[in-house]
């Protein structure tokens, strides 16, 4: 049986510290338990070496933990990734939060092109939330990476919580822990390293992490719920780094005619099947190469060059076969979305397209963010 040091929890991921089995979650050397801030070996390696050890909690374990929110009396701060709204959305959030109010916060706004109108994005997100069946008390934008609007978000949280605890929830990799670390760094009296482990790997936080507020209430970081239809859950660490944007997106514009194809690396494909010549604008990490070819050459190009010219993935990765999704787009500006990879805005009078992604990865269309 694994020995548990039940009075200690990892400040990075929230897991109970144990000193017996290095192969199990929560392990820390006994000497590390004497420090003021205790982190498990998993968080230490993740922070210092960017090394991710497999998470041994199942999706059901995460969901069961979240179900305890239903009976809380708290403000729920739902953080989403504005770069991956569909992939980072928790479907049926009300099942978990009951009657608690929800404040919707879109993180990573620094990734959007500087020309993007922030007010229009907020309006667009309100419409998206309504389509998903959520009526938040407010919709805010921020960047935990650059600090943009973080103080404003904190002020709104303090206003809306009205003396209640605050639970910060979201899917994996939306930046919840980075946001909380930003709050801690702003309130700290002296310089110190982040207390909550952050990374671009899914499943970093493993338990609730409670941070005391001045009125004896708690700000709580929660585990990220896992959406299996996101690209992140298929990719190697090397490929995940390549598709995760770190800088402002640079829109790449292509004028296509019928029977032409765009490849987003070797992970996604968009075939222009029928319609008048149209503008296709790609929003993906700047490191993801885009290739245009004739539709008649697309199959051969993919078979011969996936993992090399068409990368990511790497040559060593084996991904599910690309799955076809057929859409007839309405006139105007419409986004074709690949969960966790980006989107392609199509400006047209109405066209027929076929979009491909590895089987299981979410592909959808939406009213354009830039309409």
Secondary structure layout plus pairing:
Blueprint (H helix, E strand, L loop, with lengths): L3 E6 L6 E3 L22 H9 L9 H8 L7 E8 L12 H4 L4 E6 L10 H14 L6 E4 L8 H12 L3 E5 L6 H12 L21 E4 L5 E4 L15 H7 L8 E5 L3 E5 L3 E7 L3 E7 L5 E5 H11 L16 E7 L3 E7 L3 E7 L3 E7 L4 E5 L4
Parallel strand pairs: 3-4, 3-6, 4-5, 6-8
Antiparallel strand pairs: 1-2, 7-8, 9-12, 10-11, 10-13, 11-17, 12-16, 14-17, 15-16, 15-18
Written description of the protein model:
Pfam families: MMR_HSR1, YqeH-like_C. GO terms for molecular function: GTP binding. Residues 279-369 form the NOA1/YqeH-like C-terminal domain. This protein is of the alpha+beta class and 371 residues long. It folds into three domains: 4-49, no CATH class; 59-227, Rossmann fold, CATH 3.40.50; 242-367, no CATH class. The chain contains eight helices and 18 strands. The strands form four sheets. It has a six-stranded mixed β-sheet, sandwiched between helices. Strands 9-12-16-15-18 form a five-stranded antiparallel β-sheet, with no helix packed on it. Helix 3 links the parallel strand 3 (74-81) and strand 4 (102-107). The longest helix has 14 residues, at 118-131. It is globular, with a radius of gyration of 22 Å.
- What is the CATH architecture descriptor of the largest domain? 3-Layer(aba) Sandwich
- At the first level of CATH, the class of the largest domain is Alpha Beta
Give Rg in angstroms. 22 Å
Which consecutive residue ranges, at least 5 long each, have pLDDT under 50? 1-5, 189-194, 196-204
Trace the largest sheet across and list its strands: 5-4-3-6-8-7
Report the major sheet. 6 strands, mixed
Helicity, in percent? 10-25%
In round numbers, the mean pLDDT is 85
Q: How many domain units?
A: 3
Judged by helices, strands and strand pairing, the structural class is alpha+beta
Q: How large a portion of the residues is in β-strands, by DSSP E?
A: 25-35%
Order of helices and strands: EEHHEHEHEHEHEEHEEEEEHEEEEE
Named CATH topology of the largest domain = Rossmann fold
Termini gap: 58 Å
Shape: globular
Q: How many strands appear in the DSSP assignment?
A: 18
Number of helices: 8
Which homologous superfamily in CATH is the superfamily of the largest domain? P-loop containing nucleotide triphosphate hydrolases
Domain NOA1/YqeH-like C-terminal: 279-369
Domain G: 166-230
InterPro entries: GTP-bd, GTP-bd_ribosome_bgen_YqeH, Mito_lipid_metab_GTPase, NOA1/YqeH-like_C, P-loop_NTPase
Pfam family, one: MMR_HSR1
